[in-house]
Amino acid sequence: MQTEHRVIAQLAGQPLATVRTEGTPQSLSEVLDRAAEGTSTVGTIDSDGTQREETWRVFRDRVRLIAGDARRGGLDRGSIVVVAATEPSEILALFWSSVVAGAEPLLVPAELLDDRAGGGEWLAALAEHAPVRALVHARAARFRVVSEALKWGIDPIPLDLDEPGGHDGADPAAAEDGPLSLVHFMTSGSTGAAKVVPQRHRGIIDMALGAVAVNGLDSATVGFNWMPLSHVGGMLMAHVRDAVIAARHLSVATERILTNPAEWFRLVTEHRVSAVWSPNFAYRLLANEAGNIPADASVDLTSIRFCLNGGEAVSARDCARFEDALGRLGLPKGTIAPAWGMAETCSGVLYSPHYDPLADSSPTVSVGFPLPGVEVRIVAADAAEDGLGVGHLEVRGSPVLERYLVGGDLAMGADGWFRTGDLARIDDSGVHFVGRDGTRIVANGVTWNSADLEGEVEQVDGVVPGTCAITSFRAPSLDRDQIAVFCAVDGDASTVRGEVRRCVETIIGVPVAHVVDIPPGAIERTSIGKVRKGRLVRRFVNPDPPRLWELAWVARPASSEVTPAGAQGQVRKPVVLRGRGLVHSAMAGCTPRQLHEVLEHWRHMAEPDRLRGQDVVILVEAREGDARRLPRSHPVAAFLRAVAHGAGARSVRTVWVHPLVHEQELDDVLAQELASAAGARPAVADLFVGPGGDLWRRVLAPVSIGGDVPPATHAVLLGGTGRLGEALGAELSARGLRVTLVGHRARPGSAPADGLDRVFTDIGSTAAVGDLLEKTGWAPAERTLVVHLAGEPRPAPQDALERLLGPKTDGVRTAVELAHALDAPLAVVSSVNAHVAGTGVETYSAACAAAEMIAEQATRIPVTVVSVTSVREARQTDEANVAVAEALGLDEISVLDIASCLLARPSRSVLLGVREDVAFLPQRDGGAQHSSTSDSSDVGTTDETGWSPTVKALALALRPLVGAETVRPHASWFDLGLTSVDLPNLARALAGRTDRKIGVLELMRFPSLAALADHIDDSGKRNVG
C-alpha cells in the first residue's frame, strides 16, 4: 500500500461525459467501423519507399480477411499475440487484424525483432513471465524470433497481408473485441528495464477523444506520423487518434526521415498535412534542415495546424528555433503543442495547445492541463515540500493502466493514483516537469532542463549540431552527482572541449566533471529518439568499472605438521586423475586433432559413477621449479574439471606436481589439504607442489589498469563475424576505432553492424596471415590492436574440430603471427570456463584453456588474455544457467566492459566478471557419498511414512547426491547440503526419474521435494482435466 503524502497541487480535466456520448465507440473494432463510414484514407510508406493508400473502408475489409486467416491459423480469442513487424504497412495490418480477431496485440520495438539486442532472450523472458502463445507476421518476413518462437512455446502464424482469405470459403471475420479488451506495449527502457504495459480499449478511446477535443482536431485533419508504430505515441497518440475521428492518416518509416529530413517537408507539402508530432530532438533536426531549403513554392507548410512536441523533455529554445526556421516556409505561429504522456497513460494526457515559445520566460516548458476524465497532482515526498512546489507527479483516470503484464512496480494507491516517476510542479500555466533521470541537472539547488543546456552547448563553435548530451551521474565512491557533457567535435578537440566546459559552468555555476568528444555514431537512441545517456556515461566515463582479477600463486613453506593417523583415517582418499595429456608440455604444441583425441580418451575414462560424491584431484606434471612460471590453465585439466563437476563430484581441484616430488610426499599433502577442507571449509584452491616439497596456492588478486598506454585506433577482431564479434565491433566503432572483422562468414540470422570492415578467410589456415595483410588496408599511422575471439561455444559434436578446437588453437597461432607482423599487441578474449568448474561444456573449457596456453607462450609481442564470464549481447545459454553462474560468483557482463578492458590494455592476463567471493572450486556441504555399481540409491533407511508416491520417486533420484539418511521432504535443497552449482545435476536426475522436463528455474520456484512433488501432481491433474 502506498504511503500517504501531502498534496501540493492538483488539476482535473473536464468530466469525461463532455467527450464520451451515447454513440461513442466502445472498442477499437467499432472505431475502425466508424472510420470506414467516411471517405478518408489511411496510407503508409515503408522503409524501401513502397507506398500504400486505401480508404478506411477498404482497409477495414482487408483487415477482417486477415483476422479470419489468423483465427484459422490458430489465433485464439483473448490470447496475447506478439506482432512481429517493423514496416508501417505490416504493423498496421497485423495490429488491427489481431484486434478484430479478439486477440491482444503486443507491439515490440524494432531493435528486438531485428536481433540488435541479442539472440531472442527477450522472447524467452516474455514467454516465461506472460501467457504469450502466438506470434503473427507477414508471410514473407524473415525475423530470427519467428524461427525461435516454437522453442519457447509460442506458435508463429504467417499471414498474407496483401491478398488475405485467398482460399474457398474465406469469410471476413466478425469483430470479437470489447471495451475491456487489451493492447500491450513495451516501454522504451530509456530510464530502466523495459516493461510490458497493457491498456484497455476503453481507456485508449477516452484518451483519443480527449486529445481531439482539447486540440481542435476533426475529420478534416490530415495526420502524419513518422515515429515507430510499435511505440505508444505513434500507434495511439497519432494513428488511433486519427481513426477515432475518421481523419486521413499517413504513417512513414522512421528511418526515411532520419536519413533524409527533406522527405518530411516534401510529404507535408504533397499531402497538405495538418497534424504532426515528434519528440524534441526532431524539432532540432527539422529546424537544421529548414535552413537548407529555399523559401520558394516547392515547400509549403501553411497547411499545418497542430505540432505536438512530446516523448522527451521539451525545450523552449528548440521550439522557438523550429517555429522561426519553418515559419520561413509557411508554418503558422501558435501551432506548437507541448504534451506529456507515457505508455502507462495511453500516451499523451497533458496538452498545452497554441504554445508561444518566445513569450515563455519559465525555466521549464509547461505541458499544459489534463484531458477530460484525467486528474494529476503533485505530492511531497516524505511529507516534506522543497519550497518550490516540486514533488512527485501522480495521475489517475480512464487511460491509466491497471497493472503491468511484465516487469514494473505499480506504484498505485487504492484510490487509483499512479506515480509516474517524474518530478513536476504546477502553476497557472499548467504542469511543468522538472524531469527524471537523464533529463534534469540539479546545480546549487536549481534544476535545469538538460535539453535547454544541450541547445546552448550546440551554439559553441566546433560542436556538431544534434550531438550534444548532458547528464548527471553518481560514482559509487562519491556522495554527490557529477555532470558530464558529451558531444561530437569538428575542429581542435582540446579548444572545443574548453569552450563547452566554460559555456555550461557559466550557466549552472558548478564545475563540470567530464567533457567528452565522441564520434556521432556513439549516440544511441531509443525507438522514438531518446538518447541513452546511461550508455554514454558507462562507455566514456565508466564510473563503476567491473573489477579485474588475476590468478596468482602464493608460496607457503612446506609444513612440518603431519596429519594425525586418526584424522587421516577419517579423510577418504580422493579420486586422482593422471595420465595421458596431463603433462605441462604435452599439449603446448598440439594440433586440434591431437587435442580432440586426448579429450575423447578422457571422456571414456572419466566415468561419472566413479566421480560422483568424491573429492577429485587432477594431477598435472609440471617441469617448472617456480609456480609463477606455470600456465594459467591446462586444456585437459579444464576438461576434466568440467566433467567431474557435471558428474556430481564433491570437490575438484588441479594439482601441479614437480617430477621430483615423491608419491608419499604428495599423498601427505593431499591428505592434509582434504582434512583442512573437511573442517573449517576454507576456499578450495589449486595447488603446486614444488621440488623441495614447497606448496603454492592459487588465489585471486586484484588488478589495477590505467596509465599512459596510447589508445588503439584500429581493432582487428579474428573470429569477429559471429554474434560477439559484431556486438564488440560495433562498440569499439562507437568509441571511434576503425574495426575490421575477420572470419569465415557472417553468422546466419545475425544483424551485421554498420560501418565495420569485413574480411572473410579461414584464420586457421597457413595462408591466413598473408591473406589478411593483402586484403586489409593497413595504415602505418594507425595503432592496431589484434583481438582473438574465435571459437563456437556450443558446436555440434561433429563440428568441434572445425568450429571450436581449430579456432582456439591454430586460430590463436594465426593471431600471434598477425600481431607480430604488424608489431601490434594481442588480446585473446577467452572464457572463465578455462578456470571455473561447472560453468560450461567440457570441450569448450578445454579449448579456452588451450587458447590461453598458446597465447601466453608468445614472447615477441605484448599479450593479454581476458577470461570473461557470460556476455549479455552474445549469450547462448538460458536464464537458468545465468542464475547458476551468479550463484558461483560470476556476473554477466556487457561488450562495454570488454571494450573498456581491451582499450585499457592491462599488462597481465585478467579475469573479467568474477566477484571476490567466486567459488572457483565449489565444495558441497555434507560428507562424500560412496558410489557403487549396484543401485544403492533405491534403498534408504529414512522413514517414508506419509510420503506421497511422487515424493518417494523424487527422493530416489536425490539420494545419490546427498545420501540416503539426509533426504527430508520439506527441507530446501540448500538445507540438504546442495548448492546452486548442483541444481543442473539435480534437475537432470529428477527429470530421469519422473519422465518430465524439470529445469533449474523450477527447482528455484519449488525448493523442496514436497513443493516440487505438489507442483508435479497439480500439473498432472490440470493436463488430465
TrEMBL record:
| Pfam families recorded | AMP-binding (PF00501), PP-binding (PF00550)
Q: Which keywords has UniProt assigned to this entry?
A: Ligase, Phosphopantetheine, Phosphoprotein
Q: Where is this region: Disordered?
A: 923-945
SMART domains under this entry? PKS_KR, PKS_PP
UniProt domain Carrier: residue ranges: 945-1020
Q: State the source organism's domain of life.
A: Bacteria
Cleavable signal peptide: none
Annotated Gene Ontology cellular components are:
plasma membrane
Ranges annotated as biased composition (Low complexity)? 931-943
Q: Which GO molecular function entries does the Swiss-Prot or TrEMBL record give? A: adenylyltransferase activity; ligase activity; phosphopantetheine binding
Which InterPro entries does the UniProt entry name for this protein?
Answer: ACP-like_sf, AMP-bd_C_sf, AMP-dep_synth/lig_dom, ANL_N_sf, KR_dom, NAD(P)-bd_dom_sf, PKS_PP-bd, PP-bd_ACP
Q: Name one GO biological process term.
A: fatty acid biosynthetic process
Family note: Belongs to the ATP-dependent AMP-binding enzyme family.
* Name the UniProt record assigns to this protein: Acyl-CoA synthetase (AMP-forming)/AMP-acid ligase II
Q: Which organism is it from?
A: Micromonospora echinofusca
Native organism taxonomy: Bacteria, Bacillati, Actinomycetota, Actinomycetes, Micromonosporales
